[in-house]
Structure prediction request, 789 residues.
Amino acid sequence: MDKLKILLVDDDEDDRQFFADALEGVELNTELRQLENGKSCMEFLLSDTDNTPDLVFLDLNMPIMNGFECLEAIRRTPHLKDLLVAIYSTSSAERDIEETFEKGANIYIKKPSSFNELKKSLKQVVKMNWAYHLNDFKKENFLLKI
Amino acid sequence: MKNNLADDFFKIMIDDADTAILYAEPSASNAVNVKEYRPKYANRKGQRFFGITLDNCESETLDDLVHYDEVLILANKVLETGEDENFNIIVREEASILNYHIRIRIFNKGLLFALTLVKPKFISDKDSKLPLGNLESRNRELEISNLFGIRVLDSNDSIISYLKPVFDNKGKIEDFRIVYINNRMGEIANQETAFIEGKTILEYYPENDENGVLEILADGYASGENKEYTKEFIFDKESVWLTTKAIKMNDGLILFSKDVTQEKSYEAQLFIQNRLLSEAEHVANIGSFRWNLAKDQIKYSDNVYRLFGYDPNEFDNKYDRLLTFLHPNDLEKVKSSFKEARKTKSKIDLVFRVYTKSHELRYMNTIGECYQKEDNWYMVGVIRDVTKQIEAESVLQIKNTELKRTNADLEAFNRVASHDLQEPLRKIQMFVSRLDEEEEGRLSNRSQGYLSKIKYSSDRMRKLINNLLSYSKIDEVGEQPKRVDLNDVLKNVLEDLGESINDLNAQVDSVSLPVVNGIQFQLEQLFANLIGNSLKYVKEGVQPNIKILGSIVSGEKSSVENLLPSINYVKLQFIDNGIGFEKKYEEKIFEIFQRLHGKTEFSGTGLGLSICKKIVQSHNGTIMAKGEKDKGAEFTVYLPTLL
Prediction:
């Protein structure tokens, strides 16, 4: 089985470290790439089409190009319009959640305040039967507020 | 002889009489249908009047003497009926106009015509049935024109009268005699002209002394000046207003009086209406104006002057004068607006600043509309003092700006609280949880204790931030109020609190609750905070008991402050048997960050009840606390029922 290719876009170094550590504890068969903002994310996705990830975790509040803009750019790109995107943000504002789903996000995860919680969330997302869920695309199925 | 003497005496007497007498007999030849009378006799005066002599009189016919058929008709009538006929004629003799009274009566075999000179006077139409006399054509013309004059006088709307002064023995005017009056007076006073004529004005209407009419007329007569006056007279209990013009003519006064009763009543109504308008303007702080655009004259109501700090009519009514009141910065604006309105006859609605008489700056609003009347253009409108409104508006604007700034601050705080504050806190918690996990069992007891303290403190901080956020978000109406069943609300909250209810072995009793119009998650927070408090502030050694009651009350019948009398309220009561609080804290308990208990005794952020109050208020309700130390607390919430 191929490794699950995961891309994390977050400007916060600590958060990236938590994420990497948590992912490691969940599933070994993953390959994680980390980028710092929306701009570098788009540059990567547009140039290295051979390494298009299976799943993108996108922070919202980032410099240069924020998560919303990046999400829009992803959905505007033909070969990326079906890419699985999970929003990974501190914000629990209903407004932000609504907006990201309107713009085409698949999952919303609120950054948790405990490492254990994070591990649980990631496990849930990574192990999700995506093929099955994509046929039944509803916001509440993919809204993981932790 | 005796007879002859008597004849002579009689002859002399009638010849000396002032009366012209003519005796005529119907001609025998035409006795059936009499058309001719032959004079048989005339006294001296009669001979002179008709221009005949006793010798030749029988050769003339009455026809030749009078020229009018009507005389014969009247004569025939007398002959037929035997009744006398009386009428007047006017004749001119040399320079005088004379009025003769004529009487026809049966005498012997014929008719006797007697003409008596009456005092010179105007005669009325009905008295002169026909002219009579051997008159020259110019005399008749005069007579006709005179009759015509009478008709003119009678057909005139005015009362026309001719008065002559009556002097006392010192030569002072003490009264006026009514020599002539036309028939209009008769119509107004419902009296015969003959009843009035000949009387003095004081005989006819005694109040003429008291009301000053006599004095005015006497003055007019003495000075020769024309006089005009308007007085009220009472005729037959009816009030009649007459405007009279008195003009001296010869040795009397000619009076033209016009009945202005109607106008007077309009005037009275107008007066009342003007007074009402003036009062209304005064009360409303409004003045009105009417501007003759062609003449540059503005008629102001009294209140306009008052608005500018002046007494009525104190300043000139010219447009330019108005401009002098204006604040220099508003001058051009007002001028161009009025210029435009005058040109295009359009409506104006302007606010401008003026300086009043006492140099006070006031804001005025004027609204005016143009209209045309009899080829003239007018602008009518109102001016009102809007200083208070403008000031209130500017205060409101300042408040609005402040509010906007406060809102912006609050938003900034929200952002800071939701992200910038939570972010480092979350990391602290993350690191603590990792430290706890990785170093489990390896830390000294003391270090483990420190770690627990960090965990506890950061947890509290998180709660605090979340509470602050929800407090500031209550007014941020994201959703519209909906029908909310409070039974569902209670059920959800009891589920969430289930664990601690079980832990405390608490007894929760509730009745069936009503439905309200509201925002479900906020109402859930309200219930959760109130019930949560009851579970938090329990009395040691006593099984916690919480009662939740609900009923509908009318705002009118309830004695609770702030409730609207016109609507019904849902009354919710949350009663517990916990530690309660002192009565003096009943108000204070809802204040933000107010804590009645030490942090160590009871956890909490000091925001729970503040949030409750804000939620209730944003639902247009009221919340109250009632407490007694160690006897439990009771919270009562009033929420408007569904409309």
